[in-house]
Here is the input.
Amino acid sequence: MTPTPIRRKTRTAPAAVKSAPAPLAVPSIPVTDLSLRDTHRLIPSRFSPAGTVLSRLTASADTLSHLMELDDATNDRFLGEEGLLSGIGIHELVYGIRYAHIVNAAFTHASPAGGRFNSATRGAWYAAIDRPTALAEVAFHRTRQLEEIDWAIPETSTVDDYLADIVSPLHDLRSPASAPPPSPFAPFLEPDPIPACYAAPQQLAATLLRERSNGIIYPSVRRAGATCVACFRPPLVYNVRRSARLELSLSAGRTFRPSQAREVPIEDQ
Here is the structure.
């Protein structure tokens, strides 16, 4: 009787382990103790505390209730507050304070491409030291969106100006006036192309987050000589209040001017 040959299991070579990306070479960044009062963050008025944008879809209270339940099930802010987002923990968000949902939304509703100092999985509280700078930043990005879709007619919309105080040490990308150009921080402040120009600052922000940074203060990229902040920690956004509603008239291909914004009444207060 011929013995049955023993079949040996063939071993496949282990998959090659991908090497980790080279760590970002972070220049020495000073940390400055700051007490910033009345910083400005502009948010589309449709996210007003009163009512819901879904009310535009139906006049039926029952239908609206069902739409809101569906929206809640897929709303990143609600998912974050239930601890279901990978980029930010439930204990990092804020609760029980006025406009907590406005603060939390900044950290849970990140853009798919991220922002200058945040990834697609974790947002940040971006604000400007003054309103003209906040307007310049928002108008630039909205105008760019209109250009991308070839929007041919002027667009009129409203934004709400939320003030907040930030009293905290922040990493400081502002070069001293006496420092010779170019700034060592220039790679993190490139204006274009978006989103490619965000790659280096997003790496920087990820590194600083791991080192328990509270955020970054930096020169505005859209308004020369102005200053912006990106706060990484929700509890450090203090004393949030809505100060004004602004109507913006923007056109693709047209440089924004302050005359294109005017203050209008807040009807939902």
